[in-house]
Amino acid sequence: MLVVAGPGPVADLVGSAAAAQDLSVQTTSDLAEAAAAWTQANVVFIAEELAEQVAGRALARRGGVFLVGSDDSALARWSAPLGAEVIPLPSGGAWLGAVLDSGDARSGAPILAVFGGSGGAGASTLAAALALAASQQGQSSALVDLDPLGGGIDLLLGIERAQGWRWPSLRTAEGHVGDLRGYLPQLDKVTVVSMSRESDVDVTTEPLRAIIATLRRSHDLVVIDVGRNLSTASSEAARISTRRLLLAVSSVRGIAAAAQVRQRFGLDEAELVVRGHQAGTVADVLGLPLAGRIPHNKALPAAADRGDLAWLSARNPYLRACAKLLAQRPRP
Ligand SMILES: Nc1ncnc2c1ncn2[C@@H]1O[C@H](COP(=O)(O)OP(=O)(O)O)[C@@H](O)[C@H]1O
Ligand SMILES: [Mg+2]
User: Residue 311 Cα, ligand 2 centroid: separation in angstroms?
Assistant: First the structure.
């Protein structure tokens, strides 16, 4: 969740209510930072003293926005331009807890699942780069690897030697799992749940649900690298994700394979990401809305091989394309 407030009563009140419920909060008075986190946050609270400035940014309309403060006229004035519900203080403080406990905030961060349309399309790279792009914008993200034969996504980030659990340690998880951040390998603000190279694991539905549920409570975004084999875990990932991206290479075989993946995983609600040219035509052929195009980037294979992906600059065109994908409003 995002709290747009300077130091003061609103930040304190929302912060403590969120802490009481073990929710992760990004608090900022920096409008650029707030704008970057705007679409991804599950709920947004805006302190009245920043209402005018946030409204001035004309950000995309979204649900789950609350305007908090004690000045009734300011609340009345800015609630419509922001599309926000009003929480007047001090009386509304009591139901702040209820707002946090209800649906949106409780269910947690968005879950973005990445599907590769064909072998070597670049799905793992895209999933890792989306998680990195979120972290470069100041958000925390979790990257979850579901490809048992992908070699482990920790390699892509160069943290294959990092201490911490991989799927084999998590495969019996169930129910409510506490915050795992201290146990998992991390790089900057990216927490990684990787497959292991030592033993392959058949991740089943219940552990996947339990791990994703805890990750989305403690991060701003969860990205899943689904892999290409149809397994219990990959079908479940397709089901529980809040946004599905199908990455297709624009070649005859790339499109043919992507059409099969789309059908097998039942990705009728997916958005298309095209690697290559003529993205619009590829989207038409596959019958999916185009979320964006990612460039071929000569620096990528070597960076990925060295585990240097995380050190690519945010200005790198590939990472910029990823940031653009993230900034899009998820389809309802
Ligand atoms: N946009 C891109 N430009 C250049 N090379 C890329 C791009 N995306 C991925 N690659 C390279 O393609 C290869 C396969 O990528 P990977 O992400 O492992 O694909 P997948 O997970 O779909 O099998 C890797 O060598 C990777 O570095
Ligand atoms: Mg892969």
Answer: 20
Å from CA of 300 to ligand 2 middle:
14
Whether 288 and 262 have beta carbons less than 8 Å apart is answered as: yes
Dist. CA 181–CA 258, nearest whole Å: 34
Q: Which ligand is nearest to the CA of 298?
A: 1
- Ligand 2 centroid, distance to 227 Cα (angstroms): 6
Confidence (pTM): 0.74
The β-bridge partners of 187 are: 190
Per CATH, the homologous superfamily of domain 2-105 is Flavodoxin domain (3.40.50.360)
**Cα 285 to the center of its chain, rounded Å:** 27
pLDDT of residue 188: 87
Superfamily of structural domain 109-327: P-loop containing nucleotide triphosphate hydrolases (3.40.50.300)
| Ligand 1 pocket mutation pick from 147, 274, 300 by most atoms within 8 angstroms of CB | 300
